[in-house]
Design brief:
Layout (H helix, E strand, L loop, with lengths): L4 H144 L4 H115 L21 E4 L9 E4 L5 E3 L4 E9 L3 E10 L5 E9 L10 E2 L4 E4 L10 E8 L2 E3 L8
Antiparallel strand pairs: 1-2, 2-9, 3-8, 4-5, 4-7, 5-6, 6-9, 9-10
Length: 404
């Protein structure tokens, strides 16, 4: 049947409109999907940041507690040392006090000796003065009577000599007593000087003791402050643990929503005629070492440390379901590999690529095809491939299935 030009034009316009509508719907659907993924990624990133913030508080609180415990231990050691020093000082002070008391007794004894010698001197001096007075009286008139009573020349000649001898002897004895007294005075002065030195030493030791007592009081105050810090940290541990648990739940929920979205991206291709032979190939031709294994600390995949720029291969035939950027994975690719003979679905995810993936969503790839290059984008501390694997939408250990 031959169509008229008018009909042909109408059919063409209808087809064009249909194509426009189809493209518009497809574009809108992709836009909505991207918006949804961005929203979920943002939610997960916010939850991750919240968890990391709480974990940083926990880390800081633990460091504060450990620092306080370390400082407390140091202060206690210093207190023990100072207490020992104070004990030794007090022993020295007690010894000096005993020496001072001994010196005081010696000074008292020496003073008594000085007093005795002074009394002896005074007594001798009084006798001397009496004899001098008597002799003076003789010189004033009594001497003539004594001279006239002399019976011979010897008595007359020795009388004056005898008086001089008596006077000289008295003076000699007084000088000896005075010398002995002065010697005793010197000894007493020496004892007093020794006592003064001991008292100065005692004052110095007591000053050191007071200083150590002050330091000990400061240390005890510091220990109390560290005890307060430790108590506060221990109280904060419970609060922060609850906050961490809540943040982890929020992150798990956000991660579950994102996983559900990623699974839904895979589900779009679940009707594709893809059969997974389970004959997986390696994701890298070579690598340095496995830097993190599946399940360690909740790790979702297996990390293969490799130089930046190393080629990353699809481990099996499949369809790219996602190829974009994620705050944690960085540049990543997700591939759906189809179903095995028992109907189980398989998918893999390759993260931290050095640059935007060289494949795109909806693209068919073959086993061993280069899909990107090793990098360190996203939440990463070095060049490596983060490889995840899901069976029926559930994470599993890729190392059990993929050669490495």
């Amino acid at each position: 049947m031959k169509l008229s030009p008018i009909v042909k034009r109408a059919v063409s316009m209808t087809l064009a409109v249909a194509m426009v509508v189809t493209l518009t719907v497809s574009t809108n659907t992709m836009t909505l999907a991207d918006d949804k993924k961005s929203e979920l990624q943002a939610q997960k990133e916010a939850a991750q940041q919240q968890l990391e913030a709480v974990q940083e508080k926990i880390k800081q609180n633990q460091e504060n507690k450990e620092n306080a415990e370390e400082l407390k231990q140091q202060y206690e050691q210093q207190t023990q040392l100072i207490t020992t020093q104070i004990g030794l000082l007090q022993q020295s002070i007690a010894q000096v006090e005993e020496e001072i008391n001994t010196k005081e007794l010696e000074i008292e004894q020496k003073q008594a000796e000085v007093d005795v010698k002074q009394a002896e001197y005074n007594e001798r001096w009084e006798g001397f003065k009496d004899r001098l007075g008597a002799m003076q009286m003789l010189n004033d008139g009594g001497s003539i009577a004594l001279l006239s009573s002399a019976t011979n020349l010897y008595q007359l000649l020795t009388y004056t000599e005898t008086l001089e001898q008596i006077s000289s002897k008295d003076e000699e004895i007084c000088q000896e007593i005075e010398a002995e007294r002065q010697e005793l005075e010197a000894q007493r002065t020496e004892l007093e000087n020794a006592k003064a030195e001991l008292e100065a030493k005692q004052a110095e030791l007591e000053g050191q003791n007071a200083e150590l007592d002050g330091k000990k009081a400061e240390l005890q105050s510091s220990i109390q402050q560290q005890d307060a810090t430790i108590s506060e940290a221990e109280a904060a541990e419970e609060v922060l643990a609850a906050e961490e648990e809540e943040a982890r739940k929020n992150l798990d929920a956000a991660a579950a929503q994102l996983d559900a979205y990623l699974n839904s991206q895979v589900d779009k291709y679940s009707d594709a005629a893809l059969t997974c032979s389970l004959n997986f190939g390696p994701a890298l031709a070579s690598y340095k070492y496995i830097s993190c294994v599946f399940g360690t600390g909740g790790h979702r995949g297996t990390d293969f440390a490799a130089p930046g720029g190393t080629e990353i291969y699809a481990v099996a035939d499949g369809i790219v379901t996602d190829a974009t950027y994620h705050y944690s994975w960085g540049n990543y690719v997700q591939i759906y590999h189809g179903k095995d003979d028992e109907g189980n679905t398989y998918s893999t995810l390759y993260a931290h690529m050095i640059s935007t993936p060289i494949v795109s969503a909806g693209q068919t790839v073959t086993k061993g095809q280069v899909i990107g290059y090793v990098g360190s984008t996203g939440y990463s501390t070095g060049n490596h491939l983060h490889l995840e694997m899901k069976i029926n939408g559930v994470l599993t250990n890729a190392a059990n299935w993929i050669p490495h």
